[in-house]
Description:
- This protein has two domains: 3-198 and 338-424, Aminopeptidase (3-Layer(aba) Sandwich); 201-274 and 282-336, Alpha-Beta Plaits (2-Layer Sandwich).
- The protein has helices spanning 3-13, 15-26, 38-51, 123-143, 167-172, 225-245, 305-320, 346-359, 374-379, 406-424; strands at 55-60, 74-81, 84-94, 113-114, 117-119, 148-156, 183-186, 194-199, 201-210, 262-270, 290-299, 327-336, 339-340, 364-368, 386-388, 403-405.
- It has 427 residues and is α/β, with parallel strands linked by helices.
- The chain contains ten helices and 16 strands.
- A six-stranded mixed beta sheet has the order 1-2-6-3-7-15.
- The radius of gyration is 24 Å and the shape is elongated.
- Pathway: Amino-acid biosynthesis; L-lysine biosynthesis via DAP pathway; LL-2,6-diaminopimelate from (S)-tetrahydrodipicolinate (succinylase route): step 3/3.
- It comes from Durusdinium trenchii.
Amino acid sequence: MTLTDRLIREIDERRDDLIALTQDLLRIPTLNPPGENYREICDYLDRRFQGAGFETELVRAFGTPGDSDKYPRWNLIARREGSRSGECMHFNSHVDVVDVGQGWTRDPFGGELVDGKIYGRGSCDMKGGLAASIVAAEAFLAVCPEFSGAVEISATADEESGGYGGVAYLAEKGYFDPERVQHVIIPEPFNKNRICLGHRGVWWAEVETFGEIAHGSMPFLGDCAIRHMGAVLEEMEKSLFPALAQKQTEMPVIPEGARQSTLNINSIHGGQVEGDASFTGLPSPCVPDTCRMIIDRRFLLEEDIEDVQAEIRQIFETVKSRRNSFQYEIRELHRVLPTMTERDAPVVRTVARAIEETFGQKAEYVVSPGTYDQKHVDRIGKLKNCIAYGPGILDLAHKPDEYVGVEDMLDCAKVMGRSLIELLAKP
């Protein structure tokens, strides 16, 4: 029996363990925001990794956005050194999950197993991927205890809110230095036959229009900031959105609609601050003197960030040329440049071969419409040999009744295990 055959059998025999591990992870509600139970899930994983012979390190991302004594940003890194020098394969998964929302028919933190699917918030995105990578690594170590290099697994915070308390912090501290780690797989849910090479760019900004407060019965004595913002929205509909639809990319972004530039109006608020839910009175009659809008601009590898910003400024300048007393400000909140790993990168070639051997079909290459922690591995860690590959259906992420398929997790674990054999099981 070959080493690969033994690995496949070992993973199949760990089916019940994979299910139980996924359920345990789902039953720890790591909601972000605010960042609940990060230490609890790290401690749970720490016990497991130490039992499997890994050396572990708990790292708190002090001073990062959201970090506080009440909600500390904890991360866990587990590393198992081989018997010979060689390269390190690193699996990185975030443990935070988004808000539950409405519409669930299952317990979002119950980890219920029904018809081969495990339900729960974060099952698909991405605790199922974390569990699959752990089982893959443990199975590899069981059948190949004498290996080259190192196997490393991290469980990190805050990916859903930018990753600054997780992978970004670790990258700044050198944990993703190419001298320390050579291959990175992030088990995000892109389907078991797909390799995600990277993601589009993002530019978030808060834009604000200004007016003058006055009595609501005499609005002509004031200047309505909301009407100014309405003119901005009208200009966006007229000129910006049609222009964005014409910008197409050669990146294999999924779904098809994301192969163009996009802009989302994330939120708008103008006028008086909304009162507490317990307040039952009426608002006072005032002309709003400010209106704020958050915009989420997703851009392509072919676009330049300065041009993206200039397009927004041009919208406001166009409106300003038509409206007396129009004043505005644009404040950048967040920026991430597009990234895409080359198809001939070592980790891409390795996982592609493992997919073909496992499923009898060639891997499909995709790019994510939204960003994930590859941005920090790439930009801060300076490590280009990074992909996303994991179980689950991307469309289920953040949805009610989110689930991950058990067979998909097992299959992905086999691809991950085959990749470990190719990269680390060397004489």
